[in-house]
């Protein structure tokens, strides 16, 4: 009887030790651990950086004037442009009508009556000023509206809802992106999140420790840019648990086969 139960007791002991060693401490889960112990903490203001137009961007451009009929000669056929109503929303219930332009690989868009206009490298404000100058000889008191139709980021790895998200086009933070993806589960590595950025001809990878308050003061990583990708790694004990579960399942099958064989051939 003792010889039969000894392997079972040993197996239970090994499983218990493994589970205890894989427990996650609170220090691995808490954001901003080094914040001062105050009710109100002042943070430096952050000015959203104006986005620069790149190849492939989807632009909304609309011309208007006192004589709207004349202004419409410079507008394409009306299309529906999606506009987020609330910062951080994944879907965009509000819509408006206007002209949508996809920036070509050569950096130009084609506007009726004005022809090809180079837009790459300009901000929306700079393009607005450029277009106002171009239509001024033809329209009285012209107005031009320019904005980006989309602002997309991707969140992958150890998050509850990985995917590609459309967020607020004016200002989106790293925590709004994580919130859109359902936040980080207990199995996520908060102290080594990677931000992949391909923007304005430069490619960079940032290593971010979300357990440190310094992330709140670093505008370069706190505020996201169009097409940013956040990658969240799993904790090592998560990987260990998965491997342990696989090994345990395999050993269970082997033990069952051995036990069955012993019962048949003894």
From TrEMBL:
- Where does the chain cross the membrane? 244-265
Q: Where in the cell is it found?
A: Cell outer membrane
Q: What is its main location?
A: membrane
Does the keyword Transcription regulation feature in the UniProt annotation? no
**Sequence ranges assigned to domain SLBB in this UniProt record:** 152-232
Q: Where does the Polysaccharide export protein N-terminal domain lie?
A: 47-148
Identify the keywords attached in UniProt to this record, alphabetized.
Cell outer membrane, Ion transport, Lipoprotein, Membrane, Palmitate, Polysaccharide transport, Porin, Signal, Sugar transport, Transmembrane, Transmembrane beta strand, Transmembrane helix, Transport
Q: Topologically, how does it sit relative to the membrane?
A: Multi-pass membrane protein
Q: Name one Pfam family in it.
A: SLBB_2
| Top-level taxonomic group | Bacteria
**GO (cellular component) term, any one:** pore complex
What protein family is recorded? Belongs to the BexD/CtrA/VexA family.
Write the protein's name.
Uncharacterized protein
Source organism: Ilyomonas limi
């Amino acid at each position: 009887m003792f010889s039969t139960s000894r392997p079972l007791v040993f197996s239970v002991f090994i499983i218990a030790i493994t589970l205890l060693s894989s427990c996650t401490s609170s220090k691995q889960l808490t954001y901003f651990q080094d914040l001062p112990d105050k009710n109100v903490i002042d943070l430096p203001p952050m000015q959203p950086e104006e986005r620069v137009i790149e190849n492939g961007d989807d632009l909304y451009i609309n011309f208007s004037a006192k004589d709207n009929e004349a202004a419409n000669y410079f507008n394409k056929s009306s299309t529906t442009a999606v506009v987020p109503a609330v910062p951080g929303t994944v879907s965009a219930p509000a819509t408006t009508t206007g002209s949508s332009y996809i920036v070509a690989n050569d950096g130009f868009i084609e506007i009726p009556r004005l022809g090809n206009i180079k837009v790459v490298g300009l901000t929306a404000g700079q393009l607005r000023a450029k277009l106002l100058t171009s239509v001024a000889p033809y329209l009285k008191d012209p107005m031009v509206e320019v904005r980006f139709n989309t602002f997309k980021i991707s969140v992958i790895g150890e998050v509850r809802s990985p995917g590609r998200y459309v967020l607020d086009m004016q200002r989106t933070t790293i925590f709004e992106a994580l919130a859109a993806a359902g936040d980080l589960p207990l199995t996520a590595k908060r102290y080594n999140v990677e931000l992949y950025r391909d923007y304005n001809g430069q490619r960079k990878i940032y290593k971010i420790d979300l357990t440190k308050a310094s992330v709140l003061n670093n505008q370069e990583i706190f505020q996201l840019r169009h097409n940013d990708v956040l990658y969240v790694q799993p904790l090592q004990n998560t990987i260990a648990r998965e491997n342990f579960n696989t090994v345990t399942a395999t050993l269970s099958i082997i033990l069952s086969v051995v036990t069955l064989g012993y019962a048949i051939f003894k």
